[in-house]
Amino acid sequence: MHDTITTRGLAVLGCGKMGSAMLAGWLQRGLAPSSVWVTDPHPSDWLLSIDGLNLNVGFPESPAVVLVAVKPQMMADALPGLTALGGRDTVFLSVAAGVPIARYADMLGENTPIIRSMPNTPAAVGKGITALVGNDRVNEEAMRMAEDLLSAVGQTVRLEHESQMDAVTGVSGSGPAYVFHMIEALAAAGAAEGLPTDLAMQLAKATVAGAGALAEAATETPAQLRVNVTSPNGTTAAGLEVLMDEAAGLPPLIRATVKAAADRSRELGQ
Ligand SMILES: NC(=O)C1=CN([C@@H]2O[C@H](COP(=O)(O)OP(=O)(O)OC[C@H]3O[C@@H](n4cnc5c(N)ncnc54)[C@H](O)[C@@H]3O)[C@@H](O)[C@H]2O)C=CC1
Ligand SMILES: O=C(O)[C@@H]1CCC=N1
Fold this sequence. Notes:
This protein is an alpha/beta fold. The protein has helices at residues 3-8, 17-28, 45-48, 75-78, 101-108, 140-150, 165-173, 175-192, 197-217, 222-229, 235-243, 250-268; strands at residues 10-13, 36-39, 54-55, 65-68, 91-94, 114-118, 128-134, 154-158. The protein folds into 2 domains: 3-166, NAD(P)-binding Rossmann-like Domain (Rossmann fold), CATH 3.40.50.720; 175-268, ProC C-terminal domain-like fold, CATH 1.10.3730. It has an 8-stranded mixed sheet with strand order 3-2-1-4-5-6-7-8, with helices on both faces. NADPH binds at residue 56. Its EC number is 1.5.1.2.
């Protein structure tokens, strides 16, 4: 873990599902709990069980990073307490959906290095992907430090423009929920075809996990991997005829799903 973080400390504002997934990754990578300060009015049992963590005792005077992981709707209550840390070299790293860098800069001062990021919950098992974009106060060293932190829980990608963040949120931030729903729907369909519920769920989970792993590992495109499953005039072709229907199949449904999520991200930014 980056030396600056160990010496100056890492502050976490809000440590629910996302904050905890990230903190778990950092602790696993060897960050000492004594280097971490967490403020959360409702700490989980997991947080309470971490020996040496600085929990709800305020933040150090000049932490290397402040991770902001409260809900966008809580931001107005949570952030004003941190204005004293703004305008210096403490890097603010936000994971909040929709909240633009400008809103942090308004509260913390224009001179504050602010990185807006969008992780996702597979971070909890080290398989997340986080997109990042910083304001012009974020130098290369600060960006690398953030990437180093986030790479503890999966892949990272830099965005060229903050405006891309709403689409990213619609695809990879919210995306795990779409895939979990796919598992639910696949299992329910298996049960409707006569399988015991548990068996249908086991088949659905393993199929989605296996297909995801193959899509990541293979040199072929997902389209080719799909073709590889599809025997001419076989079972997959019959299924895909329904799923790939241009008017009523998955493409228009996923298009509308991602648009709704991206639109909501834009709305949260208003
Ligand atoms: N859950 C997800 O899949 C993802 C969430 N995010 C973003 O992460 C942020 C947090 O989301 P979750 O972890 O899902 O929510 P959560 O509800 O699990 O966590 C939020 C935490 O903030 C704490 N909190 C509330 N008021 C506070 C205050 N004034 N000061 C400090 N802490 C306070 C709550 O006690 C809670 O533990 C949101 O902004 C969300 O947009 C980003 C990517 C994915
Ligand atoms: O639903 C949300 O608003 C958050 C952001 C992306 C995933 N969960």
